[in-house]
Each structure stands twice: as structure tokens, then as C-alpha cells.
Design a protein that fits this description.
Order of helices and strands: HEEEEEEHHHEEEEEEEH
Structural class: alpha+beta
Number of strands: 13
Shape: globular
Largest sheet: 6 strands, mixed, barrel
Mean pLDDT: 84
Radius of gyration: 26 Å
Low-confidence stretches: 37-43
CATH class of the largest domain: Mainly Beta
Length: about 325
């Protein structure tokens, strides 16, 4: 009789354990569904750009319209293929929307410091970039600046350029307020500012966009495009950057083109100026899939981290109660 009672108690315990596991699995499925999160490797994650009927402000990357976009978490690692190697493991949160005319991409990542000055040789700016194949082919280009036969289109946002627009260009006197400046007779003659005179983007004082439109076809070929047609903005808030990129869906064959209900590839890069990161010293992702959907974006495109944590705590509590109840019943039946 005691053996039979023990078997009955064990069966009861197993039933409650199975119930707790099923409940936990069901709750996890709900969390993943609400957050539009996918259990997959970085190469197979899809960033879905839904159609928005709302206006996407180009000067506010924290605008509420982005609550309707489905976020994905993309892992980044240091660029360790060519010199100068560098960068660290990071995670960037990516969102995308379109309005049938323009594509909008929003990147968000943690950064303890806001680095937007490049006035001295030891100062480097925070930056972020998105990269697309110029044209679709049978194979995906190299995520490190593409290939000679498969070029890429890079949109790079720079914190220093954002500061030039928001705060004004930082000149020599601004960067060195205690400097003694002698008379310079050619101050108003453009030819005596060689970089500015030949159109070097880094010497511009009248920027209209903080995003640089670039083309590349392998290492060492990154070149500023003739058409600066990418808009955007960036803002640092509470230890995180958000950088917004925006461009018309189709601007010609020389650059990446986007079509609703079709997919392409997208990769990300981040630079931390406080860690002396610049050029090839950066954190990069593999190519992911970008899909432009005709589904209308609604409010609450994903759930926040605190909401996920709250649900996880509730799931753990209920699972624990179920398991404890099963154990108590098994003790009573022994």
C-alpha cells in the first residue's frame, strides 16, 4: 500500500511539474509574440519596416511614432579582419518604418558619454552607420565594405556633424578660447582654406544633414557619394544614443533601392569616440534581412524591457506556486 501511495504521489508531482513547465512555455511564447522577438541567429533575424500613416519627425529620434515599430536586437562585435582592428561586443536596437515614399531606420545603443567634438587630434566622435547592397545579387556582399563586384551603400551618422547643426561649427577660437590669434589677411578668401575649397566634407561649416552618404566596393574604397540625399538626426539621452536615418525609397541605380513587399540586406556599425574608435576601429554586425511590409504600423509595436522583466517575474512566481502545490500534494498522499 505504501508503494502504491508513493507511486500516486509521484504521479501527482509529475502532473504538477508538467503543468508548471507548460505554463512557463506558454508565457514565454506570449512574451516573444508581444515583443515581436525571434529566437534565431543574427544572420537570420529580419528587421520589418511596416508602413506608417503618421509623420516621422526627422529632428526627433525619440518621437512616439517609433512605438509602433517592431524592434530587433542585433549583436555587434569588434572589426577584426583588417587593420586598424578594434571595437568591442555591443548590442544595437534597430527599428524601421516607411511611408511608401521614404525609408526610416532608427538605431539605439548604450554609450556612457556623449562625444561630439573633433577639434583636437585626440578627440573622436560617436557615430553609427547602416549599410545596404547597392543591387541585389545571388550572394550577399561582404559586411566589411562590400566587394568589387558587389558594392555597398553606407549611411553614416556622426555626432560631431550633429553638433555642428545643433550648436554651430566649432572653429579654432571656439576650441581654444585662450589662444592668441594674429592677424590673418586671407581670412575671407576660400582658396586659403584648401580642404573647404575642394569640397572636403569634414571641413564644411554649413551642414544641412548629419548623415554622410557613402559608397564602397571593398576595403579602402569608401568614398563620399556625389549626392548627399540621406537625412536624419541623433540625440544622446540618459546614457543612450538614438540615430535616425531617412531617404527616399528609390533614388536611382547608383544607390540602394527599396521596394514595398520586398526584402534586402542591412548591417550596422557603431563607433565610441571615448574609446578612440574611428575609421576601421568599430563594432560591426553581420548582414541581416530588411523587409518592407505593407502592413500598417499600429501603436505599441513592441514591449519595453521593464515590461518583459515584469512578465518574467510573474511567470516565475506562478510556476513556483504550481510546483510548490504539487510538492505539497505529494507529501499529503504519502
Amino acid at each position: 500500500m505504501r508503494v502504491r501511495g508513493q507511486e500516486s504521489a509521484m504521479q501527482s508531482t509529475n502532473r504538477w511539474t508538467v503543468t508548471a513547465i507548460v505554463f512557463a512555455a506558454f508565457a514565454v511564447a506570449i512574451v516573444l509574440t508581444l515583443g515581436d522577438m525571434r529566437l534565431a541567429s543574427s544572420q537570420t533575424v529580419t528587421l520589418v519596416a511596416k508602413q506608417t500613416e503618421a509623420t516621422v519627425p526627422l529632428d526627433d529620434p525619440f518621437d512616439g511614432v517609433w512605438d509602433s515599430a517592431n524592434p530587433i536586437e542585433a549583436p555587434l562585435s569588434g572589426q577584426l579582419i583588417v587593420q586598424p582592428k578594434g571595437g568591442v561586443d555591443r548590442t544595437v536596437t534597430a527599428r524601421a518604418l516607411h511611408d511608401n515614399d521614404r525609408l526610416y531606420v532608427l538605431l539605439e545603443w548604450q554609450d556612457d558619454t556623449e562625444d561630439v567634438l573633433v577639434s583636437h587630434q585626440t578627440e573622436f566622435t560617436d557615430a553609427a552607420a547602416v549599410q545596404f547592397p547597392v543591387s541585389e545579387g545571388e550572394s550577399v556582399p561582404s559586411f566589411c565594405m562590400g566587394d568589387p563586384t558587389a558594392p555597398v551603400n553606407v549611411w553614416q551618422w556622426k555626432g560631431a556633424w550633429q553638433s555642428d547643426i545643433d550648436q554651430g561649427f566649432v572653429g579654432i577660437q571656439d576650441a581654444n578660447p585662450n589662444i592668441a590669434v594674429d592677424t590673418y589677411p586671407f581670412e575671407d578668401e576660400e582658396v586659403f582654406y584648401p580642404a573647404r575649397s575642394v569640397g572636403n566634407a569634414y571641413a564644411a561649416t554649413d551642414r544641412t544633414t548629419p548623415v554622410d552618404n557613402l559608397l564602397a566596393g571593398s576595403f579602402g574604397t569608401l568614398t563620399q557619394a556625389d549626392d548627399q540625399i540621406v537625412d536624419g538626426s541623433g540625440e544622446w539621452r540618459d546614457g543612450s544614443w538614438r540615430a535616425l536615418f531617412a531617404r527616399d525609397l528609390d533614388v536611382g541605380e547608383e544607390y540602394s533601392r527599396f521596394t514595398v513587399n520586398e526584402s534586402t540586406n542591412i548591417a550596422f556599425a557603431v563607433w565610441d569616440g571615448a574609446e578612440n574608435e574611428r575609421n576601421g576601429t568599430k563594432s560591426v554586425s553581420q548582414f541581416l534581412t530588411l523587409s518592407l511590409s505593407d502592413e500598417i504600423a499600429k501603436g505599441g509595436g513592441g514591449i519595453e524591457t521593464w515590461q518583459i522583466a515584469l512578465i518574467a517575474i510573474a511567470v516565475a512566481a506562478v510556476t513556483g506556486v504550481l510546483a510548490l502545490r504539487g510538492w505539497q500534494r505529494s507529501k499529503q498522499q504519502q
